[in-house]
Specification:
The chain is an all-alpha fold and 464 residues long. The chain folds into two domains: 359 residues, no CATH class; 77 residues, no CATH class. The protein is built from 21 helices and two strands. Strands 1-2 form a two-stranded parallel ribbon. The termini are far apart.
Length: 464
């Protein structure tokens, strides 16, 4: 009896911590439902045939300048050698690490009071970013191919954290630190033109605001330029551009800028609201006081004068103004996370690490996160059961016929979680050992975007 009473007392005292740990376990459990989908089958096929580095070089030459970046090579390695659940688990780890970096960057702006981030605090912000990024979670966290966007986010925020650290220690930087950060900048710039534009803004702001670091900024800008040139001038970009509508005239650029920024702002409304709400409710922030106009001015003043993150976010979408067809929801993650960081750095109390988290708001957020996870896990278990029935059917008839017809999966889209493209193509059929797989008599869908890459690689394969 005494043991039971002690257990109850322990649970009452540590309710929030226990629920936070449960949330983290449930969050990791989503990897169990990982599966290949759409482009995954194409990438696995090509990586198996060509190998990681040969495939990257061919893609760089014929399709995409980002193919030789560190993130793309790591993505290829995971798809080539790891099971889908392990791939998704890696993307989840990078997601958690990025959230941790966001809190660390905000702490850099706070008063000189440092405190380790608690499990509860981390769970709260994982929930906030998971819920706030509902538009992108399916494609950038739980999709094996799309998880590279989360990896790029992690590398970008790691760069910001290191850059802030180096700016504070400008008077005592070693040659090794300068060179290592320069090489990191070059490698990160290869990830995408969006990231390159964001890094350029950060360097320009630092050059203007910090006199002691100007000489270093010039050197790092050269590294950034080198990495951007390697990516932008890739032969594959020019070949791919022949299949992509472009608008370089002034009217088109202005129109695209308004449309893209408006669309991305709508995508981020929930995330931006949560940034301000959580900083006030959980931390008791009083930096946003007064009426709506005064609070709005505080935010705008922070955007313009205090932190460069929003400007970095704006710069990250600028390449999309001339290539609006690429302005889908996945490329919005850089803008959304940088703007969220700006809001958090503006709204968070400067001495937030002196103040404990408020119990009731924190517990409420943890409960909302946990209930959302449980609902999504239930939906995913239903979807996984449907997917398993299809796979068992395909495996049972493999070798008996070259063409097979299957029924569609009823549950296709799950908010905040996995999204299934119920389509078939040649790579999907080859993966299961068929020439053709049809869904209720439909014709196989073309391999859309990456079809062009496969067409470029096909003559090379024929020569072999």
């Amino acid at each position: 009896m005494r043991f039971l009473l002690n257990y109850i007392k322990f649970f009452q005292k540590n309710t929030t911590l226990i629920l936070a740990l449960i949330c983290l376990v449930l969050f990791a459990a989503f990897a169990v439902f990982a599966h290949y989908d759409s482009d995954d089958f194409i990438l696995v096929h090509e990586l198996t045939h060509y190998g990681i580095f040969n495939y990257g070089w061919l893609t760089y030459q014929n399709w995409d300048g980002r193919a030789l970046s560190v993130s793309s090579i790591l993505q290829s390695g995971l798809l080539r050698y790891a099971s889908p659940w392990l791939v998704v688990l890696c993307w989840q780890a990078f997601f958690v690490a990025t959230v941790y970096l966001v809190l660390s960057i905000v702490q850099q702006q706070a008063l000189k009071v440092k405190k380790s981030k608690t499990i509860v605090e981390l769970a709260v912000w994982i929930g906030v970013f998971w819920l706030g990024n509902f538009i992108n979670v399916a494609d950038t966290l739980y999709w094996c191919t799309g998880g590279v966007y989360t990896l790029n986010l992690f590398l970008l925020f790691l760069w910001i954290y290191l850059f802030n650290t180096l700016c504070r220690a400008a008077n005592s930087l070693s040659v090794f630190s300068q060179l290592a950060f320069g090489v990191f900048t070059l490698l990160l710039a290869q990830s995408s033109a969006q990231i390159g534009a964001a890094l350029l803004v950060a360097l320009l702001v630092a050059f203007y605001k910090h006199k002691t670091i100007k000489r270093y900024v010039v050197g790092w800008a050269i590294w950034l330029l080198a990495g951007s040139i390697i990516t932008i001038l890739a032969p594959g970009n020019f070949k791919r551009a022949t299949h992509t509508p472009r608008g370089f005239d002034t009217d088109s650029v202005i129109y695209n800028a308004v449309v893209v920024l408006g669309k991305y702002t709508l995508y981020g409304l929930l995330l931006f609201f949560l940034m301000i709400a959580v900083s006030r409710l959980v931390y008791g922030s009083k930096r946003l006081q007064g009426n709506f106009v005064q609070q709005f001015w505080t935010i705008i003043r922070g955007f313009v004068f205090n932190h460069p993150y929003f400007l970095m976010g704006l710069a990250s979408v600028s390449p999309l103004f001339v290539l609006p067809d690429f302005a889908g929801h996945r490329p919005s993650v850089i803008f959304l996370w940088l703007t969220a960081l700006q809001l958090l750095a503006t709204a968070m109390p400067e001495n937030e690490h002196r103040t404990a988290l408020r119990n009731m708001p924190t517990l409420s957020l943890i409960l909302v996160f946990m209930v959302s996870l449980l609902i999504q896990l239930g939906l995913n278990s239903r979807f996984q059961a449907q997917l398993k029935v299809r796979e068992q059917y395909l495996l049972a008839h493999r070798g008996r016929q070259n063409t097979i017809e299957i029924s569609p999966i009823p549950l296709k889209t799950i908010p905040f979680s996995y999204k299934h493209f119920d389509i078939t193509n040649a790579f999907y059929a080859q993966y299961y050992g068929y020439d053709t797989i049809l869904i209720n008599g439909d014709t196989p869908r073309p391999e859309y975007f990456r079809t062009h890459l496969h067409q470029w690689l096909r003559p090379i394969k024929a020569q072999e």
